[in-house]
């Protein structure tokens, strides 16, 4: 749904409204809203008795244009609020005004309308909002103050000129997301804490989906009233029936639809007309059909929250309101794990696997075809849910990944967030037109999103269960230093190898620890890491060895590998040692039947069947702990001196920039670039040779030439005007009519060649890529990526994210200079949303600085959507 047609959004109490631009046809409703104002509101709005209300209404509802914009908020078809701005002549300032119906004054209508005005004003280049407000109008002043914008309340007196700076910053985004989360949680309560439920399509006989849904609801402990919609039955499973939604004895807060596609659409429409607040559509076969379109239209028209269609359903084990409207085959164990999944099969597998471990769910929402409720909704719900201690996501697609990243980052600061990666294949990646685009595959972009948001990513449901088990019964590790203690030397070596493969550090045991081990263990034991107690030790001796290792200050975590022998089972002693209150310990019992199981009933720690599984979980937990301890710094690059000049240069341009324009783009962005001349003819080539002096390098600018060196498009160390002209003729002969021109640069000082680039995705936003450059770009393919905007910590992770990073920076290259380029490129991507691709390759780095030797840049019209504007899926 286009912005012009409006978008659904949530008020603070959870009501769904429509916000859309106003047009002349809305004049009568705008006038009626102003006419309904009481005397006090009229005084506040007009500073006295109003005059010319009809004229004012017409001006507010005028066609949107460069100097005017107005939006209205509609609740169930009625206009309940209006906000508009008028641009002040010859400026980037606009005067703003708003009116809200008194009946909904406390529902956040004014704030929501202001957010929409802010988003539109920014997109058109406005810098400030100005509002003339009576000093005694405290409510409106609070609306402006609480938006999160930089705010100047104006001078004292009876009238205030309030000024709001429209420049986007984290304070504003945080304020918007906080309001979004509160409203979203209020709306999801209709789904997860409903006061009454109706099941539409429950059959009388077992074996149908609808019957299973009703049975689960009846047996889960739900205490609210339940009814069934069935055309003939009087009662099913003891639950009273009504022949239609309209004939239910009460309006249910939640309805569950289990009907064939055409009938499902009719049922959703009937629910909307009856005033139902939320619907779960189990039915499949709607998407891509007229019935599916009808469901979407009903969601929009009646302000419904909807899960599905084509879904497993919804579970909440909140003891205050347990509800299970799924067709799961077994009861759901209450617990602390919240799950949102597009795949019903993944939800079933996860519920069963966690139940086998003695773990349970707080929430399970199967979004199916995701017409409305999505993963972002559940991230906001869990942030306020005291029953959810761990969040799990299986998402096949992202509707709004930039919002997801910010929400997931906020949630991951308080509890672990796990995601199953799906769709990792890059077969859909189009042929790349730059080195950066070749590196910025969909999987790379998704993984960058997860890493920056602190999401623990896995590839399979089995790995997901492994990590959940590890998180559920142990502390996060204090660092990457791991010790292995085993009574089977070979298994201990395998564990040590697995730890090193996962990037963990094998801890160096202290002399004191080794002495304790030597005293406790047989002479033939290995007292260095990995510790081999030998197979002959009794369980209590193994336990003493484990205690000694845990007491070592140089050890952050321990993997204890045990096998039973004729001398006893050391694994039986672990529960006596655990849980240590300060160290992470995982058990491994090779050959156990289950992939992972609690060491003892009730938990204590996770016990894995293979050392590699334990090491993989430990490595993920170490990375998460490291992320939690990262400073939350913002972009530390200094502000650009003239950002407006940069934006003006990019405005209106599309396609690949000429070499000269690409160099100018870098100059305006303050990114270092070697002195560059671009020429297209012999006489100008001679002039360039005179300007630059000798020696020079010539680079061909030719259609289809991406890899200049490999394609014969680079001539190095050319001396003298005659030779420069000869080299130009050589390139012209080599590329013929494909040659557009030649870039001429002085020979740069020797150094290491790196790559820095940007690839902008219309959904994910700009991705900054860093890696080895020059001829190594394709030969070695060593690169890392992060989504813009980069923080200083993000830039450091990029610099350390290559396989070659350790050797690269040990060679004495200017790391600080490259870091500054990364931050400047990130800033460029933020300031110029038109930047689709940027390729600095090579970036020549020395011990005392760095400079780009070549640049390619492509601009395209940016997507108009604001990823942080509050709205629901349409």
From TrEMBL:
Enzyme class: transferase
Keywords on record: Acyltransferase, Transferase
Signal peptide annotation: none
Pfam families to which the protein is assigned, alphabetical: Acetyltransf_1 (PF00583), ATP-grasp_5 (PF13549), CoA_binding_2 (PF13380), Ligase_CoA_2 (PF19045), Succ_CoA_lig (PF13607)
MF-aspect GO terms: acyltransferase activity
Entries under CDD domains matching the protein: NAT_SF
Domain N-acetyltransferase stretches: 17-169
E.C. number: 2.3.1.-
InterPro entries given in the database record: Acyl_CoA_acyltransferase, ATP_grasp_subdomain_1, CoA-bd, GNAT_dom, Ligase_CoA_dom, NAD(P)-bd_dom_sf, Succ_CoA_lig_flav_dom, Succinyl-CoA_synth-like
The keyword Protein transport is assigned to this record: no
Name assigned to this protein: GNAT family N-acetyltransferase
Organism expressing this protein natively: Amycolatopsis nalaikhensis
